[in-house]
Amino acid sequence: MTGLGGGFRKSFKFPARRKRFMRKPRIKLTDCVSVYHCITRAVGGQFLFEERDREMFQRMAWRQADFCGVQLITHSILSSHAHFEVRVPEPGPISDETLLGRAERFYAPKSPLLRLLRQAMAERGALPEDLREKLRKRMGDVSVFMKELKQRFSRWYNREHGRFGTLWAERFRSVLIEDRPEVVGVVAAYIDLNAVRAWIVPDPKDYRFCGYGEAVGGNRLAQMGLLSFLGTEDWEQGGAEYRMRLFVEGGTAGESGKAVLDREAILEVLKAGGKIGCGQALRLRIRYFQDGLVLGSEGWVNEIFGKFRDRFGPRRKTGARKLRGLPFEGLRTARDLRKNVLT
Length: 343
Prior knowledge:
By secondary structure, the protein is of the alpha+beta class. 43% of the residues lie in helices and 10% in strands.
């Protein structure tokens, strides 16, 4: 059998090899305090998490945040997905005593790693350089916080439910949030109203798997997270102010006595070309808060755009984009979403 002729070889073209899809790195600030809205979904969008699962996920989130040295501003854990608003501190040196303290609160008392750390501190008064570096790399990073939290919860969940395999649909999504009270606050309200939007409860205080529900229940860490953008350290005062935001600005009927439109009515108003208020907007799922990449004032979004210019198309001149169809006049996003912005 003879080989293929030279003419055939020259004329035949193999199908072009598809370029391998490369995930772009997240937009993260590493030289200053930064805030992120993180979202993670169960595989297939399934409603997997029962009350006991959500309770454990919530407990793990507090422990992971403490260990990583990040602040959990607020959160909402539902049966198919979870939201976290996290503040990451400015990078800086961490003492051996701080690292040991975080490890002691995080690991089981008989953990081999904890035993090594304690022994080193007792004998030398300092941690070995290799152990110190391994711990330090796990501190102050939103990606590490989410990765380790999801991994630890996955192991627990699969063991408890007798299953195996992946629990999560994809890597978590994140939006970089400008650390200003008015921006952090509106995203916090959006997160705490998740259970209300899902018709699980009429009042967010009745949902114990969200930051506001925990704060009302007396969790001091949850209270401190919300107070961090309310300008006070007094929960009685700050909690009352935040509740007004949730009920009046958030447009939820309840103790405020404020009549509101339901989701379908709000969408009809928008379809007819009408305008809605900020509170009514928060009754809807807003993709900008989940897929907008960056959220903040126009100047700040443009500044972030300049820092991460290589992440955007060459024809792009500015970063800030208006939130189409929404009344948040002072807010801008880095992505110009066009489809299913409000649902």
